[in-house]
Every structure is written in C-alpha cells, then in structure tokens.
C-alpha cells in the first residue's frame, strides 16, 4: 500500500493577465499515497486551488498555462493525455468537490438526476440502474431516498454539500480533490459533513487532497499536511510532525495567528505584512520580507527542500541549504 | 451608574407569507462602556438581525433599548442622527461594503461630510489621522478599494466607523472574510482601539475561538433566543446548555494533543416561522423530554451566568 497514487513533480503554472504574468504555482512537488488524506493549507492566493485544477486539467484556458512539470496519476502523466482520455478520468477516477455548494449544483435539475448523470457518464448502464445507484449514493451521504426528485433550492447548505459529495463519489473515484468543502458551512454542520466524509473514506479507501485554510480541520481529518505559500510548498510532513514541531517560520506564524481556545495570552501574534505580489515575486526566499528569523542570505538565495526529520520537508535556508 | 447600552426583551419579527418569522425573540442584555459582548450562533440564529435592530437599521417589533439611560427605542429624525454618531457598525465583507468609486480618503471622510460643521481642511487632517490610527499608510489616500487587499479594505471600514468618535460599535463578522494571518492583525488593531478610545463592542460572529479571545461576556443564540450567557472564560470552562456544548465541541481544534469528544448534532436548525412555545432546540437535543415543551426562561445559575434550559443542572 506504499505506492504513490498521485505524484506531482516540479509543477509550475502561470496566469497571463493584462497586469503581467502571475506566477501562481512554482516548482511544486507533492505525492499522495493510496488511501492517504493530505491537507493542503495556505492563505488566499497561495496556489492551492490552482494545484488541484492542474491535476484535473480544468484551469481557465487560455489565461492559465502549465509551464513545466509532470503529474503522474497511477504512473501515467495526465498532462500529456488527450482531451478524450482525460474525460475518462475526470469525475471517474479523480473527482473534485468545490467550495461553494450553492453554485456547484445545477439549479434546474433534480439532485437525483445530477448524481445519476455522473454515473451514466462513465458507466454503460441502463437509466433505471443509474437511478438506483444514485439513490444508494443519496442514502450513503445521509439524505433520505424520497428527496431524490427535489431541486437544489429545496435543500439547506449542509444538505447541498452532501449532494455535491454524492456526485463526486458516485463513480467511486480513487482520488478526491476537496477544495474547502466545509468552509461555507456552520460548525455543527461542518462536524456532520466531516464525520460523514471520514466514514466514507474508510469504507471506500479513497485518497483525498483536502484543501483548506483551517488548521483545526487538518488536525482532525488528515494524516499528512503540505503548507503552501506564494505558490510553493514550504513545509510538508505528517500532521503530527508539522503540528508538533513546525519548522518553517511561516507555519509557525500561522499557528501564532490563531486564537486558541485554551490560551490566556492578551494578544495574538500575527505575521507582519502581506503575501508578496505574485506578478513580482522576491528573488530569494518568498517569505523573507515577513520572516522574523530572516538572515542576510535569505533575500538572495532560493531555499531548497531540506529534510529536518525523515519525511518532514522544509524550504528554509536556516534549516537546510539552497541554491544562489 | 447607568450602563452604556441596555436592551430589554427585544423582538424583531419579519412578516412572511408563511407567518411571522421570529428573527430575534425576547433578547435582553446590558453592555458597559469599554466592554465587549460576543454574540455567537449559526446562520439564521438572528445574531445579525439583533445587531441591526440595536442600531435602528431595522425597526424593532417590541422591547426597549436604552443608550446612556435614555430610551432610544422609538428614536427618529434628528435624535436618531445624533444617536448614530455614537453607534456605528463594521460590516463583514470589506469587498461589498465600500463604494467602489470612492477613494480611500473620500470613503473615510464621508461620515464627517455628512455630519457637517467642519471646514474641509480640518476634515482632511482628521482623515489622515484616522488612516494612521487604523494602520493605513498615507500613500493609499487616493487608492480605490479594488486596488487593496481584504485586510486593508477592512481597515477602511474600521476607520469609517471610528470617524465620528462613537462609543459603541457593532462588529458584524469583521474578520470572517480575512485570512488567518491578516485576521490576527485586525483583531489586535480592534483591541488596541478599544483600549485607546474606550469603545464598547458588540462582536457578532460564528467563530468561537475569535469570540472567546475578544469578549468579556458571550451570548449564545439559537433561533432568535439567547440560550446561554456568561463571562467569556466561564462559558468555555463551565458550559451548561446542551446546544452550547454541541457548538463548542464542534470547533475543529488545531491542538492535536488534545482531542475533545465531539457531540454530533442530528438534523438542522428548525424553522423560525411561528415557532412552538417550548425549547427551540428540543428537536435536536439528546436530553429532550416532555418538560422541554414548556416555555423556557433564562435563569441565573451563578453570578452573571444565565442559561435557558430546564434541565441544565440534571445533565
């Protein structure tokens, strides 16, 4: 069970805009093992969603361009597949859950139809069979079968997100890309949805890339975590290693910014400044200007991945070496 | 001594085709100058409506409000304008709450212009001072909102709210739309301003870790009613209402050493249209029994700690 289901190597993505080229993803390498759940955390503009969209090749065309890198799924580079071959993977082998359940569903089709559509798209089965499997999916995500013929507007936010998850899991994908699936939900509903996703994952053995900005959700739902900053993965390791011994100053800053329930400290410790302009990234370390531990060399030299412990990678010059 | 703001049995119903929607149903609280009252609850619990009704942005259906001892429930016209200088609001979304065609300084100056009676040069210098107070560099003076990030936009929203030197500000999810690192900057700014200007905040949010951090007292709302109210630390250490317990246990905790037992609620919030008289949480409560169908009231179980549950001491 140790082989990689997904392996991203040196991925770089640019967006060409009127204001210049946005370097959204820069030299990202990431792998997901079979059955693993990896949290991809970072702030707005860190490149999380762009990474996920690159895997499915659904980046906006022609603005976005993958300028380098390979994405291996089951040993096959999806970036060189034809559009026809890609369509067999999308929604079938790799599925995606989008952040906003209010806009991810078609308002003029019943929820049952939308699930059945996903199933018949990838399987040669009769309509009645697809319909039966769609109702099973509904039951599985905790929605009574008799709501099969209702429309999205008749569902609450949490229920809609369950439908979206049912659509995503309809073809029993090997990899699920979940882009902030619970961010738009209330905490008690989020707890219900996460609980449901956890049991589905255990039952179906799906690998999950869980994109979020909520470190609390990562702690509860993921086995490993990758921290993205300005289009790079700055830290990567098991949740235990990264949360107990965060090595990158940005990761430490993120933890310091969180109001803690147990804490009695009078002030939060925010990270100073803002994320760098993605059209004009700093030459050396991307975090240099905001870093409390920066040294002279950090402005000039680009840090490489350094291993602080087996499997715990950090991109920081103070931890490991880097190229000029 | 009279308190800054006192609200008694405030009600706000909206008339819908299906009947009266009880958005805020009998909420009472007292807020002292310089203190923060946190209001938490999930979507649809009436927390935003409460904030807006207190500010007279919505007409209350019933109840009374006193500001510095004066009855303001039916304030109108001139009196209301004078009152609004004292009571301001910071909105959730810094992307839609600013006029896209006004520059930063025009947006911040707008309240001063509306109040009038101040020469333009004085308004300009006050605007610069406000920008400095909220940490906006002078070079952004003639920038437009679309050129700025969320954190800076929210600073404009805060500067606008502060422009008329209010005593009380309703903060409606002011940091929910911001990234964590920026969120911490804004929270620290708001705490500093509170100290410096002796502001009272009503901090409306669904984010429980933020609210614990910033509030002196916290009210937990469910379907228009207050189910529990307590000093901030006590609410977390000695949670009494079953809904508050479930809500607190649902917060994802980044501390992987401490695993709390999760109380999973079944079902979703019930309809606030023509609710039944008993406990509104009853349908989702695992301790519910017959007596819960009777009218519930807030009881003070220890000094300053109120709970609206007939079985709080039995569960």
Explain briefly what this protein structure is.
The complex is a heterodimer of chains A (324) and B (315). Helices cover 31% and strands 27% of the residues of chain A. Chain A has 324 residues and is an alpha/beta fold.
**Average pLDDT metric of chain A:** 90
Q: What form of chain B results from the Cα inertia axes?
A: globular
Report the CATH topology name of the largest domain in chain A: Rossmann fold
Largest interface in this structure: A-B, 45 and 38 residues
How far apart, in Å, are the first and last alpha carbons of chain B? 38 Å
Report helical residue fraction of chain B.
25-40%
Structural domain count of chain A? 2
**Span between termini of chain A:** 38 Å
CATH architecture designation of the largest domain in chain A: 3-Layer(aba) Sandwich
Structural class of chain B: alpha/beta
CATH architecture of chain B: 3-Layer(aba) Sandwich
What's the β-strand tally of chain A? 14
Spatial strand arrangement across the major sheet of chain A: 6-7-8-3-9-10-13-12
Q: Low-confidence segments of chain A, ≥5 residues, pLDDT <50?
A: none
Name the CATH class of the largest domain in chain A: Alpha Beta
CATH topology of chain B: Rossmann fold
Q: Which percent range fits the helix content of chain A?
A: 25-40%
Mean pLDDT of chain B: 91
State Rg of chain A: 21 Å
**H/E element order of chain B:** EEEHEEHEHHHEHEHEEHHEE
Structural write-up:
The complex is a heterodimer of chains A (324) and B (315). Chain A is built from ten helices and 14 strands. By secondary structure, chain A is an alpha/beta fold. In chain A, the strands form three sheets. Chain A has an eight-stranded mixed β-sheet with strand order 6-7-8-3-9-10-13-12, with helices on both faces. Chain A has a four-stranded antiparallel β-sheet with strand order 2-1-4-5, covered by helices on one side. A two-stranded antiparallel ribbon of chain A has the order 11-14. The radius of gyration of chain A is 21 Å and the shape is globular. The model of chain A has no long low-confidence stretch (mean pLDDT 90). Chain B has 315 residues and is α/β, with parallel strands linked by helices. Chain B contains nine helices and twelve strands. Chain B has helices at 47-54, 77-86, 104-115, 120-133, 150-162, 180-197, 208-214, 232-237, 242-249; strands spanning 5-16, 19-31, 36-40, 62-67, 70-71, 87-90, 168-172, 200-205, 217-222, 225-231, 299-302, 305-307. In chain B, the strands form two sheets. In chain B, strands 6-7-8-3-9-10-12-11 form an eight-stranded mixed β-sheet, sandwiched between helices. A four-stranded antiparallel β-sheet of chain B has the order 2-1-4-5. Chain B is globular. Chain B starts with a strand and ends in an 8-residue tail after the last strand. The interface between A and B is large, with 45 and 38 residues.
């Amino acid at each position: 069970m140790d082989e990689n289901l997904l392996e991203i190597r040196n991925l770089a993505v640019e967006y060409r805009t009127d204001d210049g080229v946005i370097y959204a993803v820069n030299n990202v390498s990431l792998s997901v093992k079979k059955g693993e759940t990896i949290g991809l955390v970072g702030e707005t503009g860190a490149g999380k969603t762009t990474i996920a969209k690159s895997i499915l090749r659904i980046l906006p065309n022609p603005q976005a361009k993958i300028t380098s890198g390979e994405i291996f799924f089951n040993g096959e580079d999806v970036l060189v597949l034809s559009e026809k071959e890609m369509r067999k993977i999308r929604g079938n082998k790799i599925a995606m859950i989008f952040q906003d359940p209010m806009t991810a569903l078609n308002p003029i089709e019943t929820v049952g139809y939308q699930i059945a559509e996903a199933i018949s798209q990838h399987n040669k089965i009769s309509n009645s069979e697809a319909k039966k499997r769609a109702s099973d999916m509904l039951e599985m995500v905790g929605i009574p079968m008799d709501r099969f013929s209702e429309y999205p507007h008749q569902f609450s936010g949490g229920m809609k997100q369950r439908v979206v998850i049912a659509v995503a899991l309809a073809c029993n994908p090997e990899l699920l890309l979940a882009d902030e699936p619970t961010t738009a939900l209330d905490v008690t509903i989020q707890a219900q949805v996460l609980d449901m996703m956890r049991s589905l994952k255990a039952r179906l053995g799906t690998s999950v890339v869980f994109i979020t900005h909520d470190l609390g959700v990562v702690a509860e739902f993921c086995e490993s975590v990758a921290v993205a900053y300005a289009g790079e993965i700055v830290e990567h390791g098991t949740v235990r290693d990264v949360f107990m011994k965060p090595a990158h100053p940005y990761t430490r800053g993120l933890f310091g910014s969180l109001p803690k329930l147990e804490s009695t400290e009078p002030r939060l410790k925010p990270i100073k400044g803002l994320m760098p302009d993605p059209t004009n990234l700093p030459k050396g370390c991307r975090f240099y200007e905001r870093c409390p531990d920066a040294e002279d060399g950090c402005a000039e030299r680009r840090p490489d991945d350094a291993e602080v412990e087996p499997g715990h990678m950090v991109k920081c010059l103070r931890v490991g070496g880097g190229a000029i | 001594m009279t308190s800054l703001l006192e609200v008694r049995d405030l009600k706000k119903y909206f008339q819908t085709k299906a009947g009266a929607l009880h958005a805020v149903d009998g909420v009472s609280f007292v807020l002292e100058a310089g203190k923060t009252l946190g209001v938490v609850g999930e979507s649809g619990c009436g927390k935003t409506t409460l904030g807006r009704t207190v500010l007279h942005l919505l007409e209350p259906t019933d109840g009374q409000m006193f500001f510095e001892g004066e009855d303001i429930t039916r304030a109108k016209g001139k009196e209301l304008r004078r009152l609004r200088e004292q009571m301001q609001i910071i909105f959730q979304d810094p992307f839609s709450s600013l006029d896209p065609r006004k520059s930063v300084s025009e947006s911040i100056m707008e309240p001063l212009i509306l109040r009038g009676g101040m020469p333009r040069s004085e308004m300009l210098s006050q605007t610069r001072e406000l920008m400095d107070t909220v940490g906006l560099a002078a070079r952004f003076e003639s920038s437009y909102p679309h050129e700025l990030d969320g954190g800076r936009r929210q600073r404009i929203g805060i500067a606008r709210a502060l422009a008329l030197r209010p005593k009380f500000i309703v903060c409606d999810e002011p940091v929910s739309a911001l990234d964590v690192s920026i969120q911490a900057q804004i929270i620290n700014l708001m705490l500093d301003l509170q100290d410096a200007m002796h502001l009272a905040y009503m901090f409306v949010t669904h984010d429980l870790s933020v609210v614990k951090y910033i509030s002196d007292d916290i009210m937990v709302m469910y379907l228009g009613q207050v189910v529990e109210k307590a000093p901030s630390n006590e609410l977390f250490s000695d949670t009494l209402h079953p809904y508050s317990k479930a809500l607190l246990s649902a917060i994802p905790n980044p501390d992987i050493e401490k695993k709390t037992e999760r109380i999973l609620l079944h079902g979703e919030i019930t309809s606030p249209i023509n609710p039944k008289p008993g406990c509104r949480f009853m349908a989702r409560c695992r301790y519910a029994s017959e007596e819960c169908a009777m009218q519930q009231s807030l009881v003070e179980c220890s000094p300053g700690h109120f709970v609206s549950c007939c079985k709080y001491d039995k569960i």
